[in-house]
């Protein structure tokens, strides 16, 4: 029998669509372009702690971190306030990554408000992205190289907030520029740099970009979001990406995460976490504890004991 492994899920969502406003998930809102294609299975459906718990199966999730779920941007702190209330009622989540729009006039006020909530450890602002590597436009409004956007990023350190980046790998050089300009701000790359193109050329581009980003010790990565449009999640598809990511960044800078309920469009929680565990089953037990548990404690400054003593 496999050894008991405590898991901290480093990236998932909760939403209560009955009471809260996530425009992209409302049945009456036009569907948005989505990397997994049809996401109608998510629309109009709440996802709360009891829904999460019903999916984890034999995996022992001891804590988790919620990610902003594109709450109505007219109220960028509303989701964090709701998550704080949810935590008060249920003890969940252990930490939250909040919404912030770094190029807005109200960024200073929003960051201060977010940082004042103890659960909030970092923020995410999905920057403007290009559809392909050759279409990247440096300095484009809303991009990571936009001076206005960068000015907002410069405010994170004073609030003790790290930054979470969701962007395809061809924008990672812009992220490296940000890190070099603001080395005091940690950056957590979401969803493994989005290696959706699994062609030899696509993987070569992803690998080179990840190697460049990994030169910055302030950068870490969440191994998550590995689903492929139109294909069920499989270890065969994803083991090479998982192992290369760990090789590039090293065990101390990698974390596993479910991205649920979104990645439920590609596979069950049990399938995905069984795959994660199988992909690293040959690594030392201390490394497995770091990847599934301890690295999340350090990244999100959680008041939980490390599991390294179990090694």
UniProtKB/TrEMBL annotation:
Question: Which UniProt keywords are listed?
Answer: Hydrolase
Gene3D superfamilies membership: Metal-dependent hydrolases
Keyword Cell wall biogenesis/degradation assigned to the entry: answer is no
Name the domain of life.
Bacteria
User: Does the record carry Hydrolase as a key word?
Assistant: yes
Q: Which InterPro entries match?
A: Amidohydro-rel, Metal_Hydrolase, Metallo-dep_Lactonases
Amidohydrolase-related domain segment(s): 8-302
MF GO annotations: hydrolase activity
Pfam families assigned:
Amidohydro_2 (PF04909)
The family line of this record is: Belongs to the metallo-dependent hydrolases superfamily.
From the Swiss-Prot or TrEMBL record, give the protein name.
Amidohydrolase family protein
């Amino acid at each position: 029998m496999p050894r008991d492994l405590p898991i901290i899920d480093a990236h998932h969502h909760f939403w209560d669509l009955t009471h809260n406003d996530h425009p992209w998930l409302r049945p009456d809102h036009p569907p948005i372009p989505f990397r997994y294609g049809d996401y109608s299975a998510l629309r109009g459906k709440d996802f709360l702690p009891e829904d999460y718990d019903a999916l984890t199966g034999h995996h022992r999730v001891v804590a988790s971190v919620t990610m902003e779920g594109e709450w109505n941007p007219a109220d960028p702190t509303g989701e964090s306030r709701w998550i704080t209330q949810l935590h008060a009622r249920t003890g969940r989540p252990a930490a939250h990554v909040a919404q912030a729009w770094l190029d807005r006039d109200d960024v200073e006020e929003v960051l201060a408000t977010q940082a004042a909530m103890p659960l909030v450890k970092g923020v995410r602002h999905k920057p403007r992205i290009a559809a392909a590597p050759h279409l990247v436009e440096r300095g484009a409004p809303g991009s990571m190289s936009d001076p206005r956007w960068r000015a907002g990023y410069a405010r994170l350190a004073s609030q003790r907030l790290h930054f979470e980046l969701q962007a395809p790998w061809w924008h990672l050089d812009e992220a490296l520029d940000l890190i070099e300009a603001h080395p005091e701000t940690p950056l957590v790359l979401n969803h493994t740099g989005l290696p959706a193109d699994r062609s030899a050329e696509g993987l070569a581009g992803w690998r080179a970009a990840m190697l460049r980003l990994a030169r910055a010790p302030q950068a870490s990565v969440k191994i998550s979001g590995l689903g492929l449009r139109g294909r069920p999640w499989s270890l065969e598809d994803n083991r090479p990406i998982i192992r290369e990511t760990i090789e590039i960044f090293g065990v101390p800078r990698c974390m596993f995460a479910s991205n649920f309920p979104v990645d439920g469009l590609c596979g069950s929680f049990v399938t995905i976490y069984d795959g994660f565990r199988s992909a690293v089953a040959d690594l030392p037990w201390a490394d497995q504890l770091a990847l599934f548990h301890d690295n999340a404690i350090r990244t999100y400054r959680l008041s939980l004991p490390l599991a390294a003593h179990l090694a």
